[in-house]
Amino acid sequence: MSSRIGWGIALCLALAVPAGAEVPEVDAQTVVDQAQIRDLITRYYYDLGHADAESFGRFYTEDAEFVIGPVHYKGLDGIAGAYRNVGDDNPARKAWSFNVLLSNPLIVVQGDTATARLIYTEVVIDTEGAAPRILSQGREYDRFVKRDGHWRIQRRELTPPNAVPEGWAG
């Protein structure tokens, strides 16, 4: 890898940290870990609407927690239950096409733990040929752990666009 690319990656990562936050050291392993976490998040969202509820367990730790507003799902069975009911809370998610767009991911790795913040946008197409429309948008705050060489979600919290989870630091 050329030094220009390495410096470019380091600069981009440094600029992604919010003002006043301590900038963690970035090395080759950090870049690999961030790429693995980004891939995990992307595959997770790709499976929404394409996989059965039980398959989401492969993304989480056994003791994971998934929080959507006031509702908390704990453990793999609880999280699978959340996905069995997708669409019950909002029938528009059962439209002809349902996709989630992800943007502005900020992934901070510290050894075998990491945090991620990103913006999600739910987009639906009601019928074939119809124009897409935004169903909802918000923020996601995640905590990850690396176990047996694989990153897994330990806590995932979805919030309205301007909210920050209580106690969030990362």
Written overview of the protein:
With 170 residues, this protein is α+β, with helices and mostly antiparallel strands. The chain has one domain (26-159): Nuclear Transport Factor 2, Chain: A (Roll). It is built from 3 helices and 6 strands, in the order ααββαββββ. The chain has a 6-stranded mixed sheet with strand order 2-1-6-5-4-3. A hairpin with a 2-residue loop joins strand 5 (133-147) and strand 6 (150-159). The protein is globular, with a radius of gyration of 17 Å. The two termini are 29 Å apart. The relative contact order is 0.15. The model is unreliable at 10-16 (pLDDT under 50).
Strand order of the largest sheet: 2-1-6-5-4-3
- Poorly predicted segments: 10-16
Oligomer status: single chain
**SSE arrangement, N to C:** HHEEHEEEE
Query: What's the CATH architecture?
Result: Roll
Helical amount among residues, as a percent range? 25-40%
| Structural category | alpha+beta
What characterizes the major β-sheet?
6 strands, mixed
Counting H and I runs of at least 4 residues, what is the number of helices?
3
CATH topology: Nuclear Transport Factor 2, Chain: A
